[in-house]
Design goal:
Distance between the termini of chain A: 37 Å
Order of helices and strands of chain A: EHEEEHEEEHHHEEEEH
Low-confidence stretches of chain A: 21-25
CATH architecture of the largest domain in chain A: Roll
CATH topology of the largest domain in chain A: Pnp Oxidase, Chain A
Radius of gyration of chain A: 21 Å
Mean pLDDT of chain A: 90
Oligomer: homodimer
Strand content of chain A: 25-35%
CATH class of the largest domain in chain A: Mainly Beta
CATH superfamily of the largest domain in chain A: Electron Transport, Fmn-binding Protein, Chain A
Structural class of chain A: alpha+beta
Number of helices of chain A: 6
Chain lengths: ~230, ~230
């Protein structure tokens, strides 16, 4: 890969892969945008190459300022074949449908981060525990302190991968349809956005729970909050 | 690729790629399960191989009984390099967090379809229009009849890809945590599911609209409905 010059402070390094070819207007090289997209999600789509073909699997992740942590099991086939293989991790948040006057101008407003890199298998016990905490807290905040933490046997049975955030791109698409000032505006049709709202619902107790087991506050408080 | 025997009626053909290695208990080879997952979504993650590395991009799709239609622009780099290249299309619907008594048993309930194949570029004008209708109606039902349809110039500017549903797998994870009958049940902790509810919000009019332009019924009716 070509050497890339150091980017200005707070900007992402642009590589051949992360240079935005389509919808350049939506591309962002701001580090803060990457951090915000990664912080807002908890499911990513991990792309690996297996026997020359792509494989895309959903999995949970957790992110810090410089690292994305992933469960390793889904990447195991690819990693076993080639520990130096690059993966692509994509996090997508869909915000709304863009309903235009013409079908051609219909689109989707979304925020998307793509991270490329060769994942590192985390072996240091302290980093592994911390990485699992980050991963767990991203999807289920508060559970690390509430539930029983992994014991040594469970830690040994878990493969944790770390991917640095050195090579990443962000696309953000927002706003109304594009055809409000074109000839199609004369059609007199309604146009706008239909927001997609994702929120946590009411907790559903495990049927195996004894009657009267209270929902802890950190879980109950999430009901109705946006995801 | 190995020849695969014809599957029983209503079952998916299992190939080396679609054989479920992990969480076999969640795998389904029922054709109806594949159809249901594909019908429930409208965003997929398309995986292609570019210069030997995976690239995963979100895009809209539309599905029929035997075909998945995709906008071709996102796959153009990969297709230009190798028109015979296999792609992987993954559709994921996240249903709930599974909050167990131990962090180790935490997981996510989801439905996921993965489709492999070599996409075909749709060139027949009738199929192209029908494919775009399927794609448009999957995300924005009713808009094909309401908005202005693509004209010849727009059709020519659109690359539509078709992927047969011959090689696909489905994983469905559902239900309460697994540790309700293990030693951790004695911890007395709450456990269960936290549902993730995705629904359409209130339509947001394009600021360019003349005052009083009514929201059409087919859009207004979606507010509050599940995605």
């Amino acid at each position: 890969m070509m050497e890339n010059p150091q980017p200005p402070e707070g900007r992402l390094t642009v590589t051949d892969r992360t240079r935005l070819r389509r919808m350049r207007e939506n591309g962002s090289t701001a580090r803060a945008d990457l951090d915000a997209v990664l912080a807002a999600g908890f499911i990513c789509h991990l792309g690996v190459v297996v026997d020359g073909s792509p494989m895309v699997v959903p999995t949970v992740y957790g992110s810090t300022a410089d690292t994305l942590y992933l469960h390793g099991s889904v990447a195991s086939r690819s990693l076993a074949a080639d520990p130096e293989a690059t993966v692509c991790v994509t996090v997508t948040l869909v915000d709304s449908l863009v309903l235009a006057r013409s079908v051609f101008e219909h689109s989707v407003n979304y925020r998307c981060a793509m991270v490329y890199g060769v994942p590192r298998r985390v072996t240091d016990p302290d980093e592994k525990l911390e990485g699992l905490r980050v991963l767990s807290e991203q999807a289920a905040p508060g559970q690390w302190d509430y539930a029983r933490r992994p014991n040594n046997k469970e830690l040994a049975a878990t493969t944790l991968l770390a991917l640095t955030l050195d090579e990443a791109s962000v696309k953000i698409s927002a706003g109304p349809p594009d055809d409000g000032d074109g000839p199609d505006a004369a059609l007199g049709l309604w146009a706008g956005e239909l927001p997609l709202v994702a929120a946590w619902g009411r907790p559903v107790p495990d049927p195996a729970l004894p009657d009267g087991t209270a929902v802890p506050a950190h879980i109950a408080a999430r009901t109705g909050t946006a995801v």
